[in-house]
């Protein structure tokens, strides 16, 4: 029976948001394909939903959302995490980016994006295929509308609270900014994606010399609801724009309204996440469910897996450099008759490098991952052919390599 409620809880590490409008969709560098644009749209939308930047919140627990948003603490994968979705391998952090790309791939192709081929010798939940079929139907059905909305977006912008909630409620209908940069390019009919989740239509664009003039003509209730005086309103804008910049660029009042169709991108994605729930998200990350699985856990950061592998095996021996990973590999090279583990000779540093490269390849090629109790909780990966590796639940301790599953393998000391 699967086990629950043992998921590690990670501290939040959110990236700072920008207050400036971003480049228009048709001026992105290197002219991205529609699929790439949709992938970026989905990852941003997912980040917004997980960060609780809307009135719906998130269908997952706070701890689970924080874990999906967490960046890898030593930077492994953070900067280079925009590559196309891969159907194999241990997902890089932050996990929400991998999930966002996976969802966009799932919606665009109509097929589940992660490889779920069985691992010979390991029994899994027999209902997984049926669940994936049901999820696919719902994800594609809702996702088609998300893709249509993503293609409408002309500009993306950020709006702080409480003003974002006022935009959602329809209380705030005019957005005031300095008329510099991309703001000067906004036109009537453009679609604005606010905080990566709220889609608004530009109904009018008016120019003013100062924020004071804009507030007097547009009215406080339209621009800054709940602000009671013009003077107070000007001070709100002074937090973001200096008087010199205001005088140089002028001010633009952007009149916005909700689309005729009331369904917003964040509402559509919420429905998808609610349908998938934790089980579907874990499946999209490549996690499997077997007897003894802990069903609400996530794969640890790759940096932690590699760091645990690279700890010196015996620090009490003067001059010893052999890592725990290299020591573990030395126990396996002779068990496999086909030479799968490769050569393992040379100095300790050479053996360390050979074992490290082997593990890196396994992390990149893993098609099967599980967190289960054997008898202690472990994180386990396997590649095609069944070879694998194990760590402690949080990835902080490397526990060894694995031979392919074989009946009564322990009687043969796992030689094959």
From TrEMBL:
InterPro entries: ASCH_domain, PUA-like_sf. Residues 157-256 form the ASCH domain. SUPFAM superfamilies: PUA domain-like. CDD domains: ASCH_PF0470_like. Pfam families: ASCH. This is ASCH domain-containing protein. It comes from Marchantia polymorpha.
């Amino acid at each position: 029976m699967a086990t629950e409620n043992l998921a590690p809880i990670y501290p939040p590490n959110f990236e700072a948001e920008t207050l400036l409008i971003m480049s228009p969709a048709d001026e992105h560098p290197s002219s991205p394909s529609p699929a790439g644009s949709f992938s970026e749209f989905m990852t941003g939308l997912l980040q917004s939903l997980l960060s609780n930047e809307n009135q719906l919140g998130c269908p997952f627990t706070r701890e689970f959302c924080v874990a999906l948003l967490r960046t890898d603490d030593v930077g492994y994968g953070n900067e280079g995490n925009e590559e196309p979705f891969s159907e194999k391998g241990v997902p890089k952090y932050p996990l929400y980016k991998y999930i966002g790309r996976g969802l966009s791939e799932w919606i665009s192709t109509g097929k589940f994006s992660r490889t779920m081929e069985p691992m010979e010798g390991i029994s899994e939940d027999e209902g997984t295929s049926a669940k994936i079929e049901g999820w696919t139907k719902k994800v594609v059905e809702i996702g088609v509308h998300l893709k249509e909305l993503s293609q409408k977006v002309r500009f993306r912008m950020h709006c702080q609270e409480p003003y974002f909630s006022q935009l959602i409620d329809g209380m705030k209908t005019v957005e005031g900014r300095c008329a510099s940069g991309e703001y000067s390019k906004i036109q009537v009919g453009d679609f604005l994606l606010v905080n990566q989740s709220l889609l608004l239509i530009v109904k009018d664009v008016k120019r003013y010399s100062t924020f004071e003039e804009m507030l007097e003509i547009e009215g406080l209730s339209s621009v800054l609801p709940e602000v009671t005086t013009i003077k107070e309103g000007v001070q709100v804008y002074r937090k973001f724009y200096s008087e010199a910049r205001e005088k140089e660029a002028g001010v633009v009042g952007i009149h916005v309204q909700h689309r005729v169709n009331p369904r917003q991108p964040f509402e559509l994605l919420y429905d998808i996440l609610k349908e998938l729930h934790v089980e579907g998200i874990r499946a999209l990350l490549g996690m499997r469910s077997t007897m003894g699985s802990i069903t609400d856990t996530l794969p640890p950061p790759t940096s932690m897996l590699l760091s645990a592998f690279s700890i010196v095996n015996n620090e009490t021996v003067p001059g010893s450099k052999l890592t725990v990973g290299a020591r573990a590999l030395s126990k396996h090279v002779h068990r496999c008759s086909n030479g799968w583990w490769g050569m393992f000779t040379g100095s300790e540093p050479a053996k360390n490098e050979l074992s490290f490269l082997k593990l890196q390849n396994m992390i990149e090629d893993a098609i099967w991952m599980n967190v289960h109790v054997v008898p202690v909780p472990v994180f386990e990966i396997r590649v095609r052919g069944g070879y694998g590796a194990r760590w402690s639940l949080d990835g902080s301790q490397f526990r060894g390599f694995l031979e392919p599953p074989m009946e009564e393998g322990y009687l043969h000391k796992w030689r094959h």
